[in-house]
Amino acid sequence: MILIRLVPKQTDINFLRLRKAAFGLSGLAAIGSVIFFLVLGLNFGIDFRGGILVEARVETGADIAAMRDSASALGLGDVSMQEFGDPRDVLIRVEQQIGGEEAQQAAVDAIKSAFAADIGNVEYRRVEFVGPKVSAELIRDGILALTIALVAMMFYIWLRFEWQFSVGAMVALVHDVFLTIGVFALTRLEFNLSIIAAILTIIGYSMNDTVVIYDRVRENLYKYRSMPLVGLLNKSVNDTLARTVMTSVTTLLALLALFFFGGEVIRGFTFAMIWGVLVGTYSSIFIAAPVLIYLGVHRGTKATSSAKYVGAERVEEKEPEDATKTSDAADPKGEA
Amino acid sequence: MLYFARWKIYSVLTVLLAGLVFVAPNFFSESGRSGFPNWMPHKQINLGLDLQGGSHLLLEVDVQAVIQERLEGLESEIRTTLRAEFIGYTGLGIGDDDAVHLRIRDLEELPKAVDLINAQASVLRTSNFGVGIPDLEVNSTNDGDITVTLSEEAVQIRAAAAVAQSIEVVRRRIDETGTQEPSIQRQGDDRILVQLPGLDDPDRIKRLLGKTAKMTFQMVDQKTSLIDALAGRLPPGSEIVEHDSDIDANGDPVKYVVERRAIITGEMLTNSQVTTDQNGQFAVSLQFNPTGGRRFGDATSQNVGKLFAIILDDKIISAPRIQTAILGGTGQITGNFDAQSAGDLATLLRAGALPAPLAILEERSVGPGLGADSVAAGKIASVLAFILVMIFMLAAYGMFGLAADLALMINMMLLAAGLSALQATLTLPGIAGIILTIGMAVDANVLIFERIREEIALGKTPFASVDAGYKRAMTTIIDANVTTFIAAIILFIFGSGPVKGFAITLAIGIVTSFFTAITVTRLLVSTWLTRSKPKVLPI
Questions:
Q1: Does the beta-carbon distance from B361 to A133 stay under 8 Å?
Q2: Which of A86, A145, A311, B86 has the greatest count of CB atoms below 10 A from its CB?
């Protein structure tokens, strides 16, 4: 049986040579993202901005112009309408009404009765409104969740590796988050709660990718004590390249299926995920690995490297000794 | 790594069997499941409101209103008491600091006034020494200023009681509408989360929840003219109340002067129903408890020919003239009712009044059409993702890919079993979580297989390569899964509704894929290796 190999058996691509270009590119992209975010802002959904969202279906085909006329006569402020995945479906967004929670409810009722009079038979597939109190809390919770996730992962990496790896992974993750927010600012896609969920998953995925490479770096640091760091990092990235590509492809296959067939409601979320898998894979190779050069990874000190390299033959040989040293691993002073 | 103790094989098989048992109910209809023996689980995967259609309402109890009510009560008690004792005071009122303030004119009388106010306190609870702890804190200055506040504990206890009572009333009101399987939960300090599966238009419930439904019968004060009252000559025992629907020539609501004292309150009702009056108009019939019946009987017999007001939530809904004494313990409200408003009022009166107004902070309603479309789209996307990934793994790793595919199928089965067993809610983002799991679940196997390839390249024997492949990939797999798991847990804690559903499928997916990728494929591969002893690995 002939098996597909997306990546040749032995690769020796000099990824690290590209690090300056990659840093430049990523730096620009990150700065660009911040600028887009500051200048354009995000197209916040009602989760964060408060307001009303109605998905309506008119079986005979939705006449968006007529519906817009009907709704704008109500004086509800900013009302946007767009076709939603099907010529029958319209997504209606109304800005948050002044006057607290009850005013939102009144606006929904007003729209429904206006459509009943002007449009006729309308099926309301989705009605959502988020009051000002809840939207403020959702923003707070979202930022909190992202921060805690980043810190928790950084702590885990610090525990399992050394601080340089933890910092490297963090730089890569922050890069991913910036670029995702940037692309949402640029594309004007709606930024809602599910996008926060997507970003958290992207963080998880990118971390996953980074950890796989770092694991190999750790292993190679131990195996090839005299190899220059740049070459060693290159080798580690190449060693894991086949896996990196394979996993990205399977994940992308699944996500593409979801993007094209999962329906309109979930499309923004899936887009964020696809973008995240691409950016996350890139950042693991071109950011997380090269950052280690600048942070200066400790090498050669027996205590740290042997205790942390678990799973290789040499460790097996001196298993009892290794067990006693594992405690050093979690102690940052052990590295000094 | 490749040797499996017999007990390990049996435990893997037990897990698979348990998975099958838990996933089974999902393939049977309700009647099919009722035929299951008792020991078998009956529960299907719980679909979220976004998939089965339904309404999610987040309500907030206006706790401040309860505190305000107690303060107003206190203010009027202080006024009555001090007047009865002829103690002069000025500036009695409720400040922004949630305290009642007043100043006693004659400093000689200050201690007596403080004692009188202290006597207004109600006992909050009994301390460990058997002494009653009052709910008020009364402070006075040498200038004669008195500040009365509710103790912090009193505020908390009152707020908690108001929320608990609100949940009870909300439950009764929703039950009255016949909604199937509503879920009503307390959330945070002062919020109530109401979930109504299958209900795509919660207008009636929202209307019912939007009313406090405090009902009283009060006599109209016919000794005081409205003009006097509006000019400020309002007797202390009376108040001005607007009519709910009647309007005067200027288009303003008609106002009445009514006595503050209530003859009947909502608590004195035992039942209320929609009915029609003698003119065929919709009306609401009332049945009083013995106290209520006696009081209504007394009031009507003493006041024949006079007006009384039926007040609901500070608005008069009807002000009829008493024609004759009503002694039967029943009454009837007529007004501008249609079938719907009469039905709503009867329901509200049966379910009782809310201790404080409720505000709807958030609503998310999904119609059954959209829910069904989402399920259908999710199914297509999952099946497609599943097939694509399986074909790809087979093409990339041959025999080993087949093992990974088998593991993936088992993984999906266990994931569905886990969702059914935990009764976790599957939402639309949850389906996305499953699809993401399909994509990422094979990662562990990819890591292992790539490692095996490397070991083969080093010139190891097939058995040694596979063994080393599993062993060395393990740390990486653990590290990689733990990081994703951290993300899932944090999402679960901070996420709400559908996002929580995503977190739970992601978390269960990580656990099941860890198990299947490591144990199931290893078992398959090792069985195959020991049986066929290949010279070259087909990978």
A1: yes
A2: A145
| Cα–Cα distance measured from residue B82 to residue A246, given in angstroms and rounded to the nearest whole number | 84
Say yes or no: B201 contacts chain A, CB-CB below 8 A.
yes
Phi, psi of B264 (to 5 degrees): -125, 140
**How open is the CA angle B77-B80-B84, to the nearest 5 degrees?**
140
Q: Does B499 touch chain A (CB under 8 A)?
A: yes
Chain A nearest C-alpha distance from B494 (Å): 6
Interface of B with A in 387-426 (CB under 8 A): 388-389, 392-393, 395-399
- Please classify residue A192 by burial: count the beta carbons closer than 10 Å to its beta carbon, then call 0-12 exposed, 13-18 middle and 19+ buried: buried
Distances in Å between the alpha carbon of A287 and those of A18, A19, A161, A165?
Answer: 10, 8, 17, 11
pTM for the model stands at: 0.79
Query: Is residue B375 less than 8 Å (CB to CB) from chain A?
Result: no
A216: chain B residues, CB-CB within 8 Å = 476
Domain ranges in chain B are: 6-53+368-532, 55-209, 214-336
Provide the CA B535 distance to its chain's centre, in angstroms. 63
Please tell me the distance in Å from B149's CA to the nearest CA on chain A: 28
In the stretch 11-30 of chain B, residues with CB closer than 8 A to chain A read none
Cα gap B531→B346, rounded to integer Å: 76
Q: Which residue of B has its CA nearest to A247?
A: B443
Each residue's pLDDT tens digit in chain A (336 positions)? Answer: 677 788 887 788 888 888 899 999 999 999 999 999 999 999 888 888 888 999 999 988 888 888 888 888 888 888 888 888 888 999 999 988 887 777 888 888 889 889 988 888 888 899 998 888 888 888 888 888 888 888 888 898 898 888 999 999 999 999 999 999 999 999 999 898 888 888 888 888 898 889 999 999 999 998 888 888 899 999 999 999 999 999 999 999 999 999 999 888 888 989 999 999 999 999 999 999 999 988 888 765 444 444 444 444 443 333 344 444 444 444 444 333
Check B363 against A105: CB less than 8 A apart.
yes
